[in-house]
Amino acid sequence: MKFLGMLFLLTVYGVSFEYHLKPYTVTEGVSCFFGLYGDAKEENGGRVVNTCYVESSEGYIVIDSGPTYQYAQQAYNAMQEVNPLPVKYVINTTVQDTHVLGNEFYQEQGAKLVGPESYYKLFNQDITSTISHKISKDAFFNTRLVPLDSYIKKNKEITVGDVTLEVKQFNRENGRHLVAYFPKKQIVFVGNYVSNGQAPDMDKQYSLKSWKETLSEIENLSWNYLISSHGTKIDRTALVNTKKYLNFLVEKEEKSLKQELEKQKKKINIEMLANREAKSINYTNFDQAKKEAMSENKYIMIKVEVGDCEPCVALNYELKNNSHIKEMVHRHIKAVEIDADYDALPMGLSYMGTPTVFLIEPKNNKVLMQLEGTLAVKDLEQSLEIFLEESFTKKIASL
Fold first, then answer.
1. What does each C-alpha distance from 50 to 84, 382, 388 come to in angstroms?
2. Which of 49, 77, 48, 84 is nearest to 64 (CA)?
3. Cys-Cys link to 129, which of 97, 117, 169, 339 (CB 3.0-4.6 A)?
4. Residue 105, Cα to own-chain centre: how many angstroms?
5. Which of 267, 67, 85 is nearest to 76 (CA)?
6. How far, CA to CA in Å, does 382 sit from each of 252, 317, 328, 385?
7. Which of 75, 43, 68 is nearest to 140 (CA)?
8. How far is residue 325's CA from residue 136's CA, in Å, rounded to a whole number?
9. How much is the pTM?
10. Sheet containing strand 51-55, strands side by side
11. 56 to each of 62, 83, 102, how far by Cα in Å?
12. What is the per-residue pLDDT for 309?
């Protein structure tokens, strides 16, 4: 009924945006609508990611629903022109708005929606979509985030007619990304893990180590075609280029960190480096921590954890027993502890894995440091040494 109501509104009021979608056949039974290069903006209506569909004897499986209700509707119409089959499933490979905001249209057609576990938190936090401010009101008309039918916590098979797709969650720490593998057709849909034509879109929230490990797992699958969120290369070129890009980032990060540590170690107060007893770390809420940090000219450290998280246990042991870390926190930091299973992050912060540790400059809410997963345990002490050095933080603030 909602679809008919929208059709009436489009007819009467002329509210519409034309996406000019034409499917490209990747291999028999698999086609894609390739996104345009660049960021979401008024001219492209948010059509900046690739969306695909797999045809079975009983219906379609859609990979990512696209940026808006109208996009999904127009993609569906194009699919129906090829073969009038129902859409049985929509698999969201990530939680980014340009991938998932077409979900509601397919839901109205009777499709089951599945996606990453963190989609549930995104929906319940009622976060305003950033794309709504970048594209026209006509394009965004009737678009909203809807809950999924299934939140993927572990690998799962989805079967429709004669087609079986394997939905894989390679990095189980973050729950934000999925891979859909179609072994019968030797094709893998990798979402944001791989990109071409522009820099990979994983931001600072994903550790380079975890990213490289996931790419190795993808590479070890048997496939001839690889579809990512961006770009039109569908062979191994995109994966190879992404791995080169990551290797470059890793080398740059290691070199930079090594140089800075050597520089800072010469300046660190010898007394502070001594392994002596320090007071236990006291945690408070963010508002109180910010008030005290502003008053005492200190920083804010936010520790994000969830239940059943082995690296979180390791980090808490380090924070409890490492005298050097405790003294740095006591002298320079107000600490905040957040259980992400129950509480939202302040300042619109987001994370990919747990534990995550943020170091915040309270005067301008600037994130000076973000460590995730095993890096939060391994590198916390050295990273705090760097960012708490006065000359270094002044340099960061001036960037």
1. 22, 40, 43
2. 49
3. 97
4. 23
5. 85
6. 17, 16, 11, 5
7. 68
8. 49
9. 0.63
10. 24-27, 30-33, 51-55, 60-63, 87-91, 112-116, 150-152
11. 11, 11, 21
12. 84
Residues 303/355, Cβ–Cβ less than 8 Å: yes
Domains in the chain, ordered, with CATH? 2-250 (3.60.15.10), 267-397 (3.40.30.10)
**Integer Rg of the chain from CA:** 23
Report pLDDT for 115.
93
* Nearest-angstrom CA–CA distance, 16 and 37: 22
Residue 396: the pLDDT is: 42
Contact status, residue 337 vs residue 303, Cβ threshold 8 Å: yes
Q: Could you give the CA distance from residue 340 to residue 357 in angstroms, rounded to a whole number? A: 12
d(C-alpha 235, C-alpha 198), whole Å: 16
In the block, residue with structure tokens 């569906």 = 76
How many C-beta atoms surround the C-beta of residue 193 within 10 A?
Answer: 28
Contact criterion met (CB below 8 Å) for 336 and 301: yes
The answer to whether 338 and 302 have CB atoms below 8 angstroms apart is: yes
Q: Where in the chain does DSSP place strands (E)? A: 24-27, 30-33, 51-55, 60-63, 87-91, 112-116, 150-152, 156-160, 163-168, 179-182, 187-191, 225-228, 283-284, 299-305, 333-339, 356-361, 366-372
Phi, psi of 59, deg, nearest 5: 160, -175
For residue 115, give the 3-state DSSP assignment.
Answer: strand
**Residue 311: its pLDDT value, please?**
84
The b/e string for 254-266 (b: 16+ C-beta within 10 A; e otherwise) is eeeeeebeeebee
Tokens read off for 310: 């082995």
The rounded distance, in Å, linking the Cα atoms of 144 and 34 is: 22
